Amino acid sequence: MLKKILSGEACAACRLCCIFDRYDAWETPVFTDEIRRRIQEACPEAEFVTKDGGYIFKVGEIGEDQLFSCPALTEHGCMLGDDKPFDCRIWPYRIMEVGGRRAITIASICEELYNRPLSQLVEFLKEGLADSIFAYADEHPEIVKPYYEGYPVLMFERKELSDPVWGY
Ligand code: SF4
Predict the structure, then answer these.
(1) Which of 29, 69, 117, 157 is deepest in the core (most CB within 10 A)?
(2) Is the CB of 92 within 6 Å of ligand 1?
(3) Ligand 1 within 6 A of 85 CB?
(4) Using an 8 Å Cβ cutoff, are 127 and 72 in contact?
(5) Which SS3 state, helix, strand or coil, does residue 28 take?
(6) Backbone torsions φ then ψ of 20, nearest 5 degrees
(7) Pocket lining: 36 vs ligand 1, CB cutoff 6 Å
(8) Which of 26, 73, 76, 87 to mutate for ligand 1's pocket (most ligand atoms within 8 Å of CB)?
(9) Per-domain residue ranges of the chain
(10) How far apart are CA 110 and CA 142, in angstroms?
(11) CA separation (Å) from 8 to 4, 19, 41?
(12) pLDDT tens, 53-88?
């Protein structure tokens, strides 16, 4: 979904968004049941837990400096190809709930996009990406994360949530 502003080569050379530590375990992608099954066929040892109708992979005990990878990550990149979870297709844009409203934020860990002019990041949202993200979140509220400090808010949804996803 971001091919217009984020090249596949840049992503292939990085893959930081597929590797996590204990502090960003909350950032792991939410999978549909179909994708979860596909990963488990290729990687039977992968374990998942449910999250509001979707699935996230199970993270065991991890040490302070320990890193862990998404089970879909292979030495050739993501085994899911163009069928990545929505979370990954919009990365580093994120959808979060901020004070009872949904908002689109951006993760600073993606240097490729984070260092672009703010106007370019917002303009791309206005060209249709924001509508796609909010529409998907209507159907899959499990992808909406609680606001996490340090994620700049790029755009708020106009309407307030009638039933906030996360309580404060
Ligand atoms: S599903 Fe693919 S793109 Fe998403 S975190 Fe896992 S390996 Fe990376």
Answers:
(1) 29
(2) no
(3) yes
(4) no
(5) coil
(6) -130, 160
(7) no
(8) 73
(9) 8-156
(10) 22
(11) 10, 17, 26
(12) 899 999 888 888 899 999 999 998 899 998 999 999
